[in-house]
Amino acid sequence: MGPEMKKEILIGFAIGLLATACGFYIYVEFVSPYSFEETLKIMKEGSLYGKVLGLAAIPNLFVFFIYLKKKQDLRARGVLLACFVIAFLILLSQFL
């Protein structure tokens, strides 16, 4: 795997994490009826981080298909890798 391939996968990975972060912010800020800090407190008390992270990863689906449509398969692979990392974090949050 050459350096150009690694760079493209890393860009896709970063975009995947950014899309998840944006999805998390949109959920907490606009969907939740409580303030940002209060929503985070409720999520911590109810152990809801995994569920909210799962919802926050939905924008990755759109990013993934945009990269596939543009024939940027390596970046799509990076987004998929970010989804696997997020899924692992969700799994960890269920046990902690």
List keywords for this structure.
single chain, 96 residues, mainly alpha, 5 helices, 85% helix, elongated
Count of individual domains: 1
Principal-axis shape: elongated
What's the count of strands?
0
If you compute it from the alpha carbons, what radius of gyration comes out, rounded to the nearest whole angstrom? 15 Å
Q: Treating each run of at least 4 consecutive H or I residues as one helix, how many helices?
A: 5
Helix percentage? over 70%
Question: Main sheet?
Answer: none
Summarize the structure.
By secondary structure, this protein is mostly helical.
Write the layout of secondary structure elements.
Elements lengths: L2 H29 L4 H10 L3 H8 L1 H12 L3 H23 L1
Helix pairs in contact: 1-3, 1-4, 1-5, 3-5, 4-5
Overview of this protein structure:
- The structure is a single chain.
- Helices cover 85% and strands 0% of the residues.
- It starts with a helix and ends with a helix.
- The radius of gyration is 15 Å and the shape is elongated.
- Helix 3 packs antiparallel against helix 5 and helix 4 packs antiparallel against helix 5 (73-95).
- It has helices at residues 3-31, 36-45, 49-56, 58-69, 73-95.
- The relative contact order is 0.21.
- The protein is built from five helices and no strands.
- The protein has one domain.
- The mean pLDDT is 91.
- The longest helix has 29 residues, at 3-31.
- With 96 residues, it is mainly α.
